[in-house]
Design a protein that fits this description.
The chain is mostly beta strands. The protein is built from 5 helices and 36 strands.
Length: 542
């Protein structure tokens, strides 16, 4: 309302017209109610005043107003430039879009008056999120606990929160400089399908962004600097888009993850080793981008374009299929794996890493299927680890690594093409015998062997692990190839082992029905030490 000397003039009495061709006249009230500012509800934005109640009141108004005042309900809550101190979680409901002026970029420009900052000053009350969705259980109306995850039907068991947007905001932990009293997370959306998180920066917190049952959600142009996890998407997050930079805080201290902050759905350390044939360290590893699900509720079809720095696992996939990484860049000497996955399938169109030479490009666990294109100037000298295999055709992992740039070596792991019947084409598995060319060879494990026959060309794929090397051997002999070699014309082969040795390959005689080939080093020494994984491919004419 406008107060004047003559009395009160109501906004409903004043007409508004945009003045452009086709514009219609409406009341000033309807124009003003398209969005609200948090300052309309008393927020100050000076970094000192507690603005929690004012912000929540503005959000509640937008979410709860009726169609008589807002058309279809919902709308924008605007944050003018300023630092808005909150002392407890802000809850966002259906139809609400939080919109600031600018997120500050990176490095974070917190002094600029145009930056819209949500300043989380939680003190010792760290078990909460700065911004959370107003999702609650329909049975009893209980709020979803800060560390809980939705596994049921979102529409049947919970109140869905639709039409949520978080844009142009910097969400900052008040204690980020000290790395003490770290809040659980910055931004969580539960049961918020088709949400939009855009131009958001996050500084501090244990988790940057968490999505749970948010299928169709878009996360773009985000910059996250957090302690334990960058972005975690769990259960029913099909067809999400993720684009941004996710960095782990390593200064003033590189903090390990407290057990209380490890998600309840994360496989235990023993399960990683016994079920997925992966390192137990994945249980408590820091992770840049995580796409995961229970087997019953999938998170599939993500499009991912990210930079991940200083995480132990730059990207981690669990029970997640048909994912596409447009670009996956990893950096930092803390990195152990660029991409770790189990029960998952993916394509990486361009992978780059500037980590350490002990980092794995791919750590492939049980039932992983993927293709990764490795670009130039990569530091990682080991391309895969723990490729899970078994005697069952339904179990093995298939990973194809394409070298497209300056890397230490490239290899093709077992990859059975899934094609229909083609004349002269055949694909299957074979069972060789691995022996020492001289001396003795110890235990062999993690074996998988496949082949492709196309006309008179046969390509063998193989991977096996030398658990113990016995007394050592000048060569390793792989016997019983699926087809005999008619001649050595056109014979070629590659082989890589994970200890950095230069490796060559040669043929021995081929009997009438089966053949064999040698694997040996240029130096003439034994090509594999204990726990060495040897993998490669070989093509010859029949």
């Amino acid at each position: 309302n406008l107060s004047v000397a003559a009395g009160t003039i109501y906004a409903t009495d004043i007409n508004y017209n945009e003045g452009a061709t086709g514009a219609v006249t409406r009341t000033l009230e309807s124009k003003l109610q398209e969005s609200v500012s948090v300052k309309d509800f008393g927020a100050v934005g000076d970094g000192v005043t507690d603005d929690t109640a004012a912000i929540q009141n503005a959000i509640n108004y937008i979410c709860n107003r009726t169609s008589t005042t807002s058309g279809n309900g919902g709308g924008e809550v605007f944050f003018p430039g300023g630092k808005y101190r909150i002392t407890s979680t802000i809850y966002v409901g259906s139809g609400c879009v939080l919109n600031g002026v600018w997120s500050g970029g990176y490095p974070y420009i917190v002094s600029n008056s145009k930056t819209s900052i949500i300043y989380a000053d939680f003190g010792v009350n760290i078990n909460q999120w700065a911004i959370d969705s107003a999702t609650y259980m329909t049975s009893g109306g209980a709020q979803v606990a800060y560390n809980a995850y939705v596994n049921g039907s979102i529409d049947a068991d919970y109140n869905s929160t639709h039409g949520v947007g978080i844009n142009n905001l910097l969400i900052e932990d008040a204690n980020v400089a000290l790395q003490t009293q770290i809040p659980y997370g910055a931004l969580r959306l539960i049961g918020c399908p088709n949400a939009l998180i855009s131009n958001v920066s996050i500084n501090g917190f244990g988790v940057g962004i968490q999505l749970n049952t948010c299928f169709g959600t878009t996360v773009n142009n985000v910059t996250v600097l957090s302690n334990y996890y960058g972005l975690m998407a769990y259960n029913a997050n099909n067809n999400i888009d993720i684009e941004g930079t996710f960095n782990k805080i390593i200064e003033p201290s590189n903090l390990s993850i407290p057990t209380a902050n490890i998600p309840s759905w994360m496989p235990t350390a023993s399960n990683f080793t016994s079920v997925f044939s992966m390192a137990s360290t994945h249980y408590a590893s820091s992770k840049g981008v995580t796409i995961a699900a229970s087997q019953a509720v999938g998170s599939n079809g993500a499009n991912i374009n990210v930079i991940c720095q200083y995480w132990q696992d730059s990207a981690f996939l669990l029970n997640s299929y048909a994912n596409t990484f447009l670009d996956l860049y990893a950096e930092g000497n803390q990195c152990q794996n660029v991409l770790s996955s189990t029960y998952s399938s993916w394509v990486v169109q361009n992978a780059q890493n500037y980590t350490v030479n002990t980092a794995y490009m791919v750590d492939a666990g049980y039932q992983t299927s993927g293709v990764i294109n490795v670009g130039g100037n990569n530091i990682s000298t080991t391309f895969f680890n723990n490729l899970w295999t078994s005697a069952s055709n339904s179990d093995p992992s298939y990973v194809l690594v394409n070298n497209t740039g300056n890397v230490t070596r490239s290899l093709s792991l077992p990859n059975l093409p899934r094609l229909g019947k083609v004349e002269g084409y055949e694909a299957g598995t074979w069972t060789p015998t691995i022996v020492a060319g001289a001396g003795t060879l110890g235990t062999i494990s993690n074996q998988y062997y496949s082949y492709v026959k196309n006309g008179n060309q046969v390509t063998l794929f193989y991977t096996f692990k030398i658990v113990t090397n016995g007394t050592g051997a000048a060569t390793i002999v792989v016997q019983n190839t699926p087809y005999a070699c008619s001649s050595l014309v056109g014979a070629s082969g590659t082989c890589s082992i994970n200890n950095g040795s230069s490796v060559s390959m040669g043929f021995t005689t081929f009997p009438a029905t089966t053949g064999s080939f040698d694997i040996f080093t240029y130096s003439g020494g034994y090509p594999g030490a204990d726990n060495t994984i040897i993998t490669g491919s070989l093509t010859y004419s029949i």
